[in-house]
Amino acid sequence: MISPLSLSGLFTLDPVRHGDDRGWFSEVFRTDKFREQVADVTFVQENRSLSQQAGTMRGLHFQTPPHAQGKLVSCIAGSLWDVAVDLRPGPSFGKWHAEELSAQNGRQFWIPAGFAHGFCTREPNTVISYKVTAFYAPDHDAGLAWDFGHADGAGVTWPEIANPDTLSAKDRNQPEIETVRGVFA
Ligand SMILES: Cc1cn([C@H]2C[C@H](O)[C@@H](COP(=O)(O)OP(=O)(O)O[C@H]3O[C@H](C)C(=O)[C@H](O)[C@H]3O)O2)c(=O)[nH]c1=O
């Protein structure tokens, strides 16, 4: 099943699992169905990362134009809380949406270009896997603080298990959201 979400452009996808006495089989991605029902994009790279500790936080990241990335995110081991923050100009700027992704539920989260992406793992040895629509461009790698807006009572409400001590040095020094307003104008 493919479902549009409240923030326009975001979707969840729940591929069918054909079970039998061995286990299950699932078509987890098809270009034709994705282009018809979600977005007419082409994926050029697939990323995976292992986070050993539960509560590991990564993000909030994006690549600036012309290397902005759409991301089709899934969890292939363990479980995680995945969040997209809208950086597109307009009334939804700064709004966010999160999804629970796990190897068990097989759910996928489509995040188009124009959003920052981050996650927090819920189990040890969680692996995230995501296709992206633009190649890695380190000179266009950007981000915003995981706790943006918290001083004003706004921003992302991370799960209890989130552990800021797990943040990379880069992620401990990301800027406030106002500094990235207009990046996707
Ligand atoms: C993103 C990326 C990274 N790298 C190298 C660069 C570093 O040597 C190493 C770790 O990179 P980084 O610390 O940026 O990895 P994460 O903190 O997991 O960042 C990612 O996680 C958040 C949630 C995202 O959505 C982005 O895709 C991405 O920013 O992998 C590559 O070689 N290719 C790549 O595409």
UniProtKB/TrEMBL annotation:
<comment type="function">
    <text>Catalyzes the epimerization of the C3' and C5'positions of dTDP-6-deoxy-D-xylo-4-hexulose, forming dTDP-6-deoxy-L-lyxo-4-hexulose.</text>
</comment>
<feature type="active site" description="Proton donor">
    <location>
        <position position="130"/>
    </location>
</feature>
<protein>
    <recommendedName>
        <fullName>dTDP-4-dehydrorhamnose 3,5-epimerase</fullName>
        <ecNumber>5.1.3.13</ecNumber>
    </recommendedName>
</protein>
<dbReference type="InterPro" id="IPR014710">
    <property type="entry name" value="RmlC-like_jellyroll"/>
</dbReference>
<dbReference type="InterPro" id="IPR011051">
    <property type="entry name" value="RmlC_Cupin_sf"/>
</dbReference>
<dbReference type="InterPro" id="IPR000888">
    <property type="entry name" value="RmlC-like"/>
</dbReference>
<feature type="site" description="Participates in a stacking interaction with the thymidine ring of dTDP-4-oxo-6-deoxyglucose">
    <location>
        <position position="136"/>
    </location>
</feature>
<comment type="similarity">
    <text>Belongs to the dTDP-4-dehydrorhamnose 3,5-epimerase family.</text>
</comment>
<keyword id="KW-0413">Isomerase</keyword>
<dbReference type="GO" id="GO:0019305">
    <property type="term" value="P:dTDP-rhamnose biosynthetic process"/>
</dbReference>
<dbReference type="GO" id="GO:0008830">
    <property type="term" value="F:dTDP-4-dehydrorhamnose 3,5-epimerase activity"/>
</dbReference>
<feature type="active site" description="Proton acceptor">
    <location>
        <position position="61"/>
    </location>
</feature>
<comment type="subunit">
    <text>Homodimer.</text>
</comment>
<dbReference type="GO" id="GO:0005829">
    <property type="term" value="C:cytosol"/>
</dbReference>
<comment type="pathway">
    <text>Carbohydrate biosynthesis; dTDP-L-rhamnose biosynthesis.</text>
</comment>
<dbReference type="GO" id="GO:0000271">
    <property type="term" value="P:polysaccharide biosynthetic process"/>
</dbReference>
<dbReference type="Pfam" id="PF00908">
    <property type="entry name" value="dTDP_sugar_isom"/>
</dbReference>
